[in-house]
Amino acid sequence: MSAFPPPRLVCSREELRAMLHALRAQPAVAVDTESNSLHAYRERVCLIQFSIPAQDYIVDPLAIHDLAALQPLFADAEIKKVFHAAEYDLICLWRDFGWKVRGLFDTMMAARALGWEQVGLAAILSEQFSVPTSKRFQRADWGKRPLSEAQLAYAQLDTRYLLQLRERQAAALRRRGQWPEVSEEFERIARAGARSSPDSAAGQQAVDGFWRISGARKLDERERAVLRELHQYREGVAKRKDQPLYRVMGDATLLALAQRAPRSKRELHGIDGMIAGQIQRHAKGILPAVRRGLRAKPPPLPSSRSGGRRVAARYEALREWRKRRAQRRGLASDVILARDVLWALARAAPASMAELESVQDLGAWRRAEYGEEILRVLRAARA
């Protein structure tokens, strides 16, 4: 079925050195990662895939405990790193290895900038290269060993065509005069990846992570206190068993428990998600957590990201402007400006082109292209 050779599995330092020798000779390298987020309490990168025209490589971080030799490759802006939907991969590489990526090309962002209707990798591979794809291993536990040949082939396909795709997209972007715009966005995505991490504040997440549960902010004070204790109980179980949170207990179940505040095992029956097995496993942990929550001081609502009504009003005005601008260009709104940049503009409320220069991640191309429009929107929002 495959018209290209099987991937080369890299499991030793010697194999890593040989791979790096080949990669460093290339002007561009395709990259992807596979993690075990659906199968572990704290996910980790379990595979790193690389492709160059002549060969595909799959690095096993579980077999090679020191991957520091890869850091210079990712830091070298002269060797382009081609990802599809890079943002989460960059976060994971920064979280697990401390690597910043320079010389990024994101084929999904390029597809969005070109106005492609389908931007998922499977759809693009089908449309651009007539390559069929499978979702067979989409939810696989990539932390398990050994890996099957079918898994390796699945992982290989995530990078195999990215270099060819980049060539097509780059040519189209240059023809349309969009190269400066998209290059600026690639740089923003790369910087953002090294600024955040899914669990960069794991200890604080165990305490305050309950605010991420949908509906938590709508609870009354007593219910919020109970939810906090239930969330901490779930965190402890998940960490002890090395399971993702959802496998211990779903968010909807925690919310229902916080609202009902059951005092006895009998009262657990009929609560969303509390089937017989869950009651048997968790009653001895849930009921004390509820009691602690009922006695605890209620947690105050966290400060809003918006920073107040005026900031929120400026954000909404900018968001509406961005929507109209995107419609005129026939593009998705975030190609115009990323949401985080809109929030930065709303908070800073710059009043001049000079002040726009201090807004984080608003690059030179976008300042020149949209700066005066942005200032008019902000002036109108202040009026």
Number of strands: 6
CATH fold-level label of the largest domain: Nucleotidyltransferase, domain 5
Say which CATH homologous superfamily of the largest domain is assigned. Answer: Ribonuclease H-like superfamily/Ribonuclease H
Indicate the CATH architecture of the largest domain: 2-Layer Sandwich
Task: Evaluate the radius of gyration.
Answer: 24 Å
The oligomerization state is single chain
Element pattern in H and E = EHEEEHEHEHHHHHHHHHHHHHHHH
Number of domains: 3
Strand order of the largest sheet: 1-4-3-2-5-6
Distance between the termini: 64 Å
Strand content bin: 5-15%
Low-confidence runs: none
Biggest pleated sheet: 6 strands, mixed
The overall pLDDT, averaged over residues, is 94
Helix/strand/pairing class, anyone? alpha/beta
- Provide a count of the helices: 19
Question: What's the shape?
Answer: globular
What's the level 1 CATH class of the largest domain? Alpha Beta
Structure description:
The protein has helices spanning 13-23, 71-75, 86-97, 107-113, 121-129, 149-160, 162-175, 179-193, 202-208, 221-241, 245-248, 251-260, 265-268, 276-295, 309-329, 333-336, 339-348, 353-356, 364-382; strands at residues 8-10, 28-35, 45-52, 55-59, 80-83, 104-106. With 383 residues, it is an alpha/beta fold. It has three domains: 8-193, Nucleotidyltransferase, domain 5 (2-Layer Sandwich); 202-295, HRDC domain (DNA polymerase, domain 1, Orthogonal Bundle); 309-382, DNA polymerase, domain 1 (Orthogonal Bundle), CATH 1.10.150. Helix 3 (86-97) packs parallel to helix 8, helix 10 crosses helix 12 (251-260) and helix 15 crosses helix 17. The model has no long low-confidence stretch (mean pLDDT 94).
